[in-house]
């Protein structure tokens, strides 16, 4: 029977058994004090409790705007949860029968554009993953205006002269807690893998490049990182100005007044002030010279990211779940290209060759998939150039049943966690077989840094002489990296390797 009673640095915990009793769960474990009142927009602080805390239920999700029922992910992730500003909790699933088993640890960070999401999403349940001998941890962290507001007043009151990265500091505080306490659950504090999808993948990249996380974990898995913007992590000064603009638009005189607003009123104000389609761009991590000394891409290019085992991957149709762009005119496409690619816009437009609305629609449909693939391949190439540990790459092509969305952004994680029974889709035998393979690959990698194992198709790492990726779909096996002219251009743009003169 799995562990039911443990003692951590904060106090005693009692969990519950899952199903047949081979796995136990500890849900809603406070890893930091509630970030409310004077602790709003401050680094996470320690917490303790007396007696035995019953860790039976999930804690509320972080404050966020409710998903619209017509949003693709509303149905996919069942995004109706209780919410609270008091959200700094984590969950643990373990199959350990005693605390000295030293099982490998998987630390999961959910996605949602740093605007939404929760560790209580059914697709992220760790019970089935833990059955394979992994201690699974999922973490909650502050989002949107609560987690990423920067402002000169906040920077001035910080001993580190930074502000705006509270959601990331929550994750690090939780990771430090896991490092110190996971042995109580039968986990090995010297064998931790950080992984996540979408914004969770972006968070994972930040953790591999932050000076605050060095030595906290041994492996990283980046799932569906998406995006191609080269300056995706703006400097602190730029984020501070956004904070000034927000308070001004909200009619607030300063941080003191903003801290007095109820969480519900602050969220309502955030909704009123910020355009819906721009929120994910306005509030997220920044380069503050505390969490980050430089943009993560620059850290990677300099070879200063953490020396870890890496797995990176993307899906074949990353952008399908977001639907078509509202404007597919050639003029709008060209304007957006200039905003993103700036001095290289003309070169991009020549590569895209989108001279009709039909071609623009096609390019935009696969733009996110191309960008995600570009990130993966570019990182693997940097690992080779810098003579670091080779990266394992995957390319997810299976089109989940139930609709025509295809291999959408984040489609792979239900296969990894084997959570099909908790999801609405009518998965078939092919899906269950693929899920068994993928879950085994992930667990093997988490255990020792190599996904290969008995009975599995061989997964070769990306090397100087092996520019291959593992296709995970109707067929499972190594294939040449499916680069396109656009993904190659984006890869060179992201990793500053264009090798051309900037054009005016």
Summarize this structure as a short list of keywords or feature phrases.
504 residues, alpha/beta, Rossmann fold, eleven-stranded mixed β-sheet, three-stranded mixed β-sheet, 18 helices, globular, disordered C terminus
Structural overview:
It comes from Hominifimenecus microfluidus. Its EC number is 3.1.1.-. The protein has 504 residues and is an alpha/beta fold. It has a single domain, classed as Alpha/Beta hydrolase fold, catalytic domain (Rossmann fold, 3-Layer(aba) Sandwich), CATH 3.40.50. The chain is 34% helix and 15% strand. The chain contains 18 helices and 14 strands. The protein has helices spanning 72-77, 127-130, 144-148, 152-157, 166-181, 199-209, 236-249, 255-260, 263-273, 279-282, 296-301, 330-341, 345-352, 357-365, 367-385, 413-417, 429-448, 485-494, and strands at residues 5-8, 11-14, 16-18, 23-30, 52-54, 89-94, 103-109, 135-139, 187-197, 219-223, 309-315, 392-396, 468-472, 476-480. The protein has an eleven-stranded mixed sheet, with helices on both faces. Strands 1-2-5 form a three-stranded mixed sheet, with no helix packed on it. Helix 15 crosses helix 18.
For the secondary structure, the number of strands is 14
* Number of structural domains: 1
Terminal Cα span: 68 Å
| Main beta-sheet strand count, sense and barrel state | 11 strands, mixed
Approximately how much beta-strand content do the residues carry?
A: 15-25%
Low-confidence stretches: 500-504
CATH domain class:
Alpha Beta
Q: What is the number of helices?
A: 18
**Any idea what the shape is?**
globular
In CATH terms, the superfamily is Alpha/Beta hydrolase fold, catalytic domain
Strand line-up of the largest beta sheet: 3-4-6-8-7-9-10-11-12-13-14
The name of the CATH topology is Rossmann fold
Helix- and strand-based class?
Answer: alpha/beta
Helix content: 25-40%
Q: Mind telling me the C-alpha Rg?
A: 22 Å
Mean pLDDT: 92
């Amino acid at each position: 029977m799995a562990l039911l009673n443990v003692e951590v640095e904060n106090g005693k915990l009692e969990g519950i058994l899952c199903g047949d009793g081979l796995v136990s769960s500890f849900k809603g474990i406070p890893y930091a004090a509630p970030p409310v009142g004077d602790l709003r927009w401050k680094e996470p602080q320690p917490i303790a409790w007396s007696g035995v805390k019953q860790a039976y239920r999930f804690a509320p999700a972080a404050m966020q705007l409710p998903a619209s029922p017509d949003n693709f992910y509303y149905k996919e992730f069942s995004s109706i949860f209780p919410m609270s500003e008091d959200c700094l909790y984590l969950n643990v699933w373990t199959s350990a029968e005693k605390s000295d088993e030293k099982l490998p640890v998987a630390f999961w960070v959910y996605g949602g554009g740093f605007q939404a999401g929760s560790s209580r999403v059914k697709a992220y349940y760790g019970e089935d993953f833990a059955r394979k001998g992994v201690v699974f941890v999922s973490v909650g962290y502050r989002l949107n205006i609560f987690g990423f507001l920067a402002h000169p007043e906040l920077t001035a009151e910080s001993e580190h002269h930074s502000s705006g990265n509270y959601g990331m500091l929550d994750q690090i505080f939780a990771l430090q807690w896991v490092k110190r306490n996971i042995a109580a659950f039968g986990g090995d504090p010297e064998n931790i893998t950080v992984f996540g999808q979408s914004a969770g993948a972006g968070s994972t990249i930040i953790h591999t490049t932050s000076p605050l996380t060095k030595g906290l974990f041994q492996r990283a898995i980046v799932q569906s990182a998406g995006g191609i913007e080269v300056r995706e992590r703006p400097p602190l000064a730029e984020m501070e100005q956004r904070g000034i603009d927000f308070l001004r638009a909200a009619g607030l005189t300063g941080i003191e007044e903003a801290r007095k607003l109820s969480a519900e009123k602050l969220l309502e104000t955030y909704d009123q002030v910020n355009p819906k389609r721009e929120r994910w761009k306005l509030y997220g991590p920044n380069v503050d010279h505390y969490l980050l000394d430089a943009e993560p891409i620059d850290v990677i290019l300099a070879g200063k990211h953490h020396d870890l085992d890496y797995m990176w991957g993307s899906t074949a149709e990353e952008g399908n779940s977001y639907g078509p762009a509202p404007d597919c005119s050639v003029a709008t496409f060209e304007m957006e290209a200039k905003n993103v690619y700036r001095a290289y816009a003309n070169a991009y437009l020549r590569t895209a060759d989108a001279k009709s609305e039909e071609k623009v629609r096609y390019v935009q449909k696969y733009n996110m998939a191309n960008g995600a693939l570009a990130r993966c391949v570019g990182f693997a190439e940097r690992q080779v150039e810098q003579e670091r540990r080779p990266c394992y790459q995957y390319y997810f092509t299976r089109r989940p049943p139930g609709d025509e969305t295809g291999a959408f952004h984040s489609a792979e994680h239900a296969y990894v966690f084997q959570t099909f029974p908790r999801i609405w889709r009518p998965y078939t035998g092919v899906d269950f077989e693929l899920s068994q393979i993928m879950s085994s690959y992930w667990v093997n990698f988490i255990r020792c840094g190599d996904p290969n194992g008995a009975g599995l198709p061989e997964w070769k790492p990306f090397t100087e002489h092996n520019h291959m990726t593992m296709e995970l779909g109707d067929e499972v096996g190594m294939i040449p990296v499916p680069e396109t002219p656009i993904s190659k251009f984006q890869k060179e743009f992201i990793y500053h390797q264009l090798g051309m003169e900037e054009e005016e």
